């Protein structure tokens, strides 16, 4: 069963000085409920643009996106409520604690049982000991886990991670992979972007390879690697 469906998605950034920039040409893909789907591609391929369209921060030029049958144009709120985004960049208020940050996020989504949800999610990402510490005192790995926690507060069925391990060391990478797999085992559908083949191979059941706004291959990880 498909949870996300993308048809003929196109994005052109218009810029008076620099001219038009075709970021997504004609993207077609379906993501199945419960899978870990990888979007693999070099810098500039269009991965972040795709995520930002789902997040609602970039407006598509053409095409259709739907989540569980909710159309992004007609039901943007339902689409956004179904998706949790873990951004690439760690951009946290240094003086907020994990607990404070998650409670604010819960407030944003109108969640009633703020304390219970916050406790559960802090436990899930192993930050219960740091619940009340300032974000600036957390290690790089803890900050990444906190970003993941933030994306989970409204309990979205799909979590999208933008280059989850870009620029992190081997140990932390393994740790993040473990956390993502755990989340998937809890029933969350995962989409991750990466430019590491090795990461896609380790994590994903299916992979789409994106290049210059076009999907150049889409298959199970096994089939894809057999062909390379
Ligand atoms: P990726 O995440 O795969 O590195 P992006 O989605 O960031 O790719 O970028 C795809 C293309 O769109 C690139 O050519 C990039 O320069 C361009 N692009 C991204 N954001 C903007 C923007 N705000 N304005 C103009 N062009 C952009
Ligand atoms: P990523 O590696 O995640 O794709 P980038 O470093 O390409 O991120 O982009 C960082 C920021 O710059 C983003 O907000 C993106 O929208 C913007 N950007 C990227 N390419 C362009 C471009 N050609 N013109 C204007 N803004 C751009």
From TrEMBL:
Sample GO molecular function, one term: ATP binding
Ranges where the ABC transporter domain occurs: 4-228
Signal sequence residues: none
Protein keywords: ATP-binding, Nodulation, Nucleotide-binding, Transport
Source organism, top-level taxon: Bacteria
Stated family: Belongs to the ABC transporter superfamily.
Protein name: YadG-like ABC transporter protein
Native source organism of the sequence: Pelagibacter ubique (strain HTCC1062)
Lineage: Bacteria, Pseudomonadati, Pseudomonadota, Alphaproteobacteria, Candidatus Pelagibacterales
